[in-house]
Amino acid sequence: MAESRKTVTIKADASGExxxxxxxxxxIAGLAATEVEGVSSMAGNITNEIVSKLGMKNLAKGIFxxxxxxxxxxxxxxxxxxxxxxxxxxSKVQERVxxxxxxxxxxxxxxxxxxxxxxxxxxxx
Length: 125
What we know:
Elements: E1 7-13, E2 16-21, H1 22-34, E3 39-42, H2 46-53, E4 63-68, E5 71-81, H3 86-105, E6 108-120
Parallel strand pairs: 5-6
Antiparallel strand pairs: 1-2, 3-5, 4-5
Helix pairs in contact: 1-3
């Protein structure tokens, strides 16, 4: 059974309609979050970890997006680099994700929840 993707219409006029899949919003949020200094990577489940080790990058890893009408709720799970202040990094992630999603889609971001899944010690074991 094929999984249907949820989409939201961001523009509809006489020239046509523009729809964006929720996965696209998740990718935008993921890219924005990883641009913040102190975020070492996105957190994900074991399947995402295996896929990423095989060289395939899932840009929506660690992101859950709920798009209702023209409002978005985003949950972000990150791994933070050791030595960075968690409140500072998470606040910047919230701000960066909100700005990126709103600027690129025109949707309103209602909330950005950030979960710190682990601390990256920076040692390759």
